[in-house]
Amino acid sequence: MSPQMQGTPQDEQAIRNMSAEFMIAWNKNDSKALAACFTTDGDLINPAGRVGRGRNEVGKIIAEEQSGVFKGTRINMPQKHLRFLKPDVAVADYEFEITGLRGPETTLKGLLTSVLHKEGEKWLIAAARPSIPVPLPATNR
After folding, report:
1. Could you tell me the CATH number of the domain that includes residue 87?
2. How many domains is the chain partitioned into structurally?
3. Contact 126, 92 (CB under 8 A)
4. How far from chain centre, in Å, is Cα 88?
5. pLDDT tens by residue, 92-114
């Protein structure tokens, strides 16, 4: 097994900056800025199973969510793990918490795995897979 590839401190900081930009855009309900965090061919499969392929489709999903169920919410998503697959490709794992939801559930917690791609000096999301863990069904053993 080959040793794990190390990212440069500059790349690690650029990824943290991109994540911070994503959170700032979310907290402003700025769907255009959120979509701009994705590569032009980036994709998203949200926890409800909606699929967006390409920045335009991803942007449509985000815009619907930000003007609907997530309008006025705030997100916090600390990075829990970062692994570089190549100098310009990384996988990042986050835990997220969305607060300010309307209805009986005011907080939503989940996990996000993103594949990140470096374009020039900027890191962008090539694929995002947010999930909301649910308990597994009990087995009769």
Report:
1. 3.10.450.50
2. 1
3. no
4. 18
5. 999 999 999 988 889 999 999 99
Is there a domain that residue 17 lies in?
yes
Span 16-64, pLDDT tens digits: 999 999 999 999 999 999 999 999 999 999 999 999 999 999 999 999 9
State the amino acid at position 78 in one-letter form. P
Residues 6+ apart with CB under 8 A from 27: 74, 75
Residue 23 lies in a domain: yes
d(CA 96, CA 124): 18
